[in-house]
Amino acid sequence: METGEEFGPWLSRQLALAGKTQAELAEELGLTRAAVSAWITKRSVPRPTVMGEIAKALGTDLGTVHTRTADTQAGLPITWYHRPGYQDGGRDGGNAAAFAFDADVQVLARETCQNSLDERLVENGRPVRVRYTIHELTGETLEAFRSAVLWDELQPHYSAVSACASDQKVGRVVDAGVRDMFEKGRLILLRIDDYNASGLTGDDYGDGKFAAVVRRQLESLKSGRGAGGSYGLGKATLWATSALGMVLINSTLSVPHEGRTERRVIGRLELPWRSVDGNQYAGPAWLGRPDPETAGAEVVRSWWADEETVERLHLTRESDEPGTSFLIVGAHDVASLEQGKPDSSDDEDENGSDGDGTRDIRAMHRRLVDALGRDFWAAMTGGGSRLPLLETSVRTLRNGAVVIEEEKVDPTDTQPSRTRALRAFYDGSTVDRLTEAGQVALRTVPLRLPLSGGRRGTLGTHPGVLLVTEAEDKDGVPNQVHSLRGNRMTIKKSGVAGLPLGVNSFQAVLLVGHAAGESAPFAEEAEEFLRAAEPPEHDRWGQTEELTLRWSHSAHHRIARLTTEVNAAVKELVVRPKRPGAQESSKLRKKLTVQPKSTVVRRGSGPSLPELDGLDAAIGTDGEWKITADVKLPRAEELPAMTPVVLLDVRSGSRPRLDWADLVAVEGCEVENGVLRFVPGARRATFRGSTDPTSHPVRTELTRLVLELRAGTGE
Fold first, then answer.
1. Residues 623, 699: contact at Cβ < 8 Å?
2. Rounded CA gap, 200 and 267, in Å?
3. Sorting pLDDT into bands at 50, 70 and 90, what band is 558?
4. What is residue 513's DSSP assignment?
5. What's phi and psi for 297, nearest 5 deg?
6. Eight-state DSSP code of residue 514
């Protein structure tokens, strides 16, 4: 049973909701105003015989007055409150935070699952459980939902946004979402439920998790020490994924608010500036109960809904376990359809369309499962004395009927090699060197932490844990290092530069911060340092503004050195020592040429240029050249940009130039539009690329290749 609120504060709010004064209630009860005041100020409570009279006066039942776990239904109704336009004439074309991420359900899964991990209740040792429900509504079910969200109140606002859609990006998205709902007669809801999480605790307006998520932007109030988020941007993916800009919320609290915990409900709408019936509105709107303590009782606040209301809003939670349900109204996944091609699946007919009209939600289901397995395999893996931090599942419905049964994401199926490596670490069954199939080798790699505030020197050395094991086909791209810290979400994915041809395929995992063990030296400091080195997407470690402000402009070099240590340790484990006179891959190596240094044109006594210093190449399955190149960098304050150019070696005439299919930086550099820009202070850099087979004039096996570095754009 829920904990009831104290009688005085509860009665005070009910009077405000009903628009009654203490004197009016006293007159109805035949008592003095002083008696009612004593109840309000908690100096006394009414006698049991008076409780029934109070229930009548408030238009509710006796049980509600006794338990005080819900507001009475009398008084101010649930409605939408739209923020008035700015008095200085300023206009917002939408929430800028939403533009930090794409309308992509895989990005949504990464951000929302990370937030749930950060809010996990750790005292009971159980994982946080996150369930994604895709639900397509049509016909009467859709009409009932539109009625529940008071669509008639919102229609003028959506019409105003559509009228100005050509001038606003957000307006165009919203206009398309409304047209899709009415023209196709459908609406896709995407609900994210987490359990064993803290819930949106705190006051509607004060400093707390509720206000940080529902009322504010760029504010992050995370619970965990190893929290993934730090910018307060992740919540924006919820609204970015809604073509209607609407998200409804139902939270079960881990800490009571106003004496209760269940069914705290509110909605938030993100629209651009608009003018409706001569009134200007700034952008956001909230669905809730008018707060009588605000001017004119116009601003709405969250309310404690009954079970029937949350059912009509499709917000019913399966238990009273703490956590939050976010319902994205009009969910769309631009990334899965951006090519404009039908998604290939078994449920499509010969014309590329599906017979039951569920292709979009089936594609969304598959992409969610893929993203969860790829990014959170480590958080879902346990072993030894360590339990998983996370459980995830995805299910798909249409008008309440099951389209795809609930599918629990299994990390051993999506990432078999990496989960084997992590479990071996937890079980203490790692080895020093790989000698048999299925083994996991362990090495420690140093992360030398800098002193804060721009001071020179090293705070201490944190020993990261590197795990290496053989790869399996289900792992995806082989020879990768997945790096993660405290909440065990994959942060960085990178290849290992300079691997020789013929090396056995492997997968590696780097654990740093709390992921390396709570007792690891400087784990807390490493966690803080690496968290500051992550951008809003939390998908890499490198130079950030926060890192510069709190440590120094060169602090990211410590991360580059960690990468160098990791690559060296991996090579030491997976590369077989060369035998004297071995001619491994000699035929292929003869086909690849580094342009001689003597051909590099130097201008007078100007600064020296970066030079190619080592190459590895292989021919891919599609006939492309796959090249990894090392670059030696001269000592200089600023290095010029260089363009790698790949040419066919011919006996006479000009060398045909091939196109790059992809070109990526590995370390010591960045790639921008095919141009290499080098990290200041680095002495070496590595990049990797593949040629475009369609640009090859002859079969790849019959060609020899020349790789050049050209200053500038390389034209």
1. yes
2. 13
3. very high
4. G
5. 50, 45
6. G
Query: In degrees rounded to 5, what are phi and psi of residue 110?
Result: -65, -45
Task: Provide CB contacts within 8 A for 159, sequence distance 6+.
Answer: none
Q: What letter would DSSP give residue 504?
A: P
Task: Judge contact between 638 and 655, C-beta under 8 A.
Answer: no
Rounded Cα distance, 426 and 428, in Å:
6
* pLDDT tens readout for residues 613-672: 888 888 887 788 888 888 998 887 788 889 999 888 776 667 888 888 888 888 888 888
Q: In this structure, which amino acid lies at residue 422?
A: L
Joined together, the tokens standing for residue 556 give 């990211």
The predicted pLDDT at position 604 comes to 41
- Residue type at 247 in one-letter notation: V
Angle between helices 151-163 and 169-183 (to 10 degrees): 130
Query: Tell me: the pLDDT tens digits for 399-435?
Result: 999 999 999 999 999 899 999 999 999 999 999 999 8
Q: Could you tell me the pTM of the whole model?
A: 0.73
For residues 223, 225, 226, 232, the Cα torsion angle rounded to the nearest 10 degrees is 40
- The whole-angstrom separation of Cα 715 and Cα 709 is 11
Question: E strands along 479-538, which residues?
Answer: 480-484, 490-495, 506-511
The residue behind tokens 């336009």 is: 85
Please give the single-letter amino acid code of residue 200: L
Kindly write down the DSSP assignment for every residue of 540-558, as one continuous string.
Answer: --S--HHHHHHT-TTTHHH
Check: CB of residue 536 under 8 Å from CB of residue 463.
no
> Hunting for tokens 């009398």 — which residue is that?
74
CA distance 595 to 593: 6
User: Under a CB-based contact definition with an 8 Å cutoff, are residues 523 and 516 in contact?
Assistant: yes
Indicate the helix (H) or strand (E) that contains 611.
Answer: strand 611-619
How far apart are the C-alpha atoms of 409 and 83, rounded to whole Å?
41
